[in-house]
Amino acid sequence: MNKIITFGEEVEGYNIPVLNEREIRAAAGILFLATFTSLMFILFEGNFVPIKYVITFFLADFMIRVFINPKFSPTLIFARLIVRNQTPEYVGAAQKKFAWIIGVVLSATMFYFFIIVNAYGPMTGITCLICLIFLFFESAFGICLGCKFYPLLFKDKVQYCPGEVCDVKQKQEIQKTSVSQVLILFAFVAFIFLTVYLMNDRFSEKPYDMFGINKTEQTK
């Protein structure tokens, strides 16, 4: 029974339980896509049914991770199948558990409002946004935002962070950002704002049907 209900896996060469960061990032991407898509149904169609299913599955998945075993999480199993040919990147299990507890709290809050109370408001919107930000940073950048709060509440030194960010080290040359690169970034941001300002009316025009396909279908 103890082998079933546990958190993290014992891997040779690591003195604490660890998890595979590649699986975690893939699972975060799956959940981000599902959550983002369901929110699009709300924004464009006013359809709240998809988000209710997503929240239910989201909460169930995270409760399995935290209270039973990450090995039995459906999204992590699916993610393992996707990245099975990639070399594992091991991360400490302790900080991930803390981050996933935050996920349980957020999804439980959403479950209460959307499913039990059947209502929405600023609270649900902010909670959804936080979930999306957490999932996006994990899947796109490999940054666990929830893990950042772990050292604030626990005195234990965080070990085996993604990308070895826990270890103090000097940046390699390829990691350094030059002044010219920063200026290019700011220039590109300015270009975006300038484009929106100058081209908004033009971009707002609905494109016409070059070949008249829709007109042909409407006359049939």
Walkthrough of the structure:
By secondary structure, this protein is mainly α. The mean pLDDT is 88. A two-stranded antiparallel ribbon has the order 1-2. It starts with 17 loop residues before the first strand and ends with a helix. It contains eight helices and two strands; from the N terminus they run E-H-H-H-E-H-H-H-H-H. 61% of the residues lie in helices and 3% in strands. The relative contact order is 0.11. The chain has a domain of 152 residues.
Question: In brief, what are we looking at here?
Answer:
The protein has 220 residues and is mainly α. 61% of the residues lie in helices and 3% in strands. The chain has a domain at 18-169.
Question: Low-confidence stretches at least 5 residues in length (pLDDT < 50)?
Answer: none
Distance between the termini: 67 Å
Oligomer: single chain
What is the share of helical residues? Answer: 55-70%
Q: Please work out how many helical segments DSSP would assign.
A: 8
Strand order of the largest sheet: 1-2
- How many beta-strand elements? 2
Order of helices and strands: EHHHEHHHHH
Q: Quick one: overall form?
A: globular
Mean pLDDT: 88
Biggest pleated-sheet summary: 2 strands, antiparallel
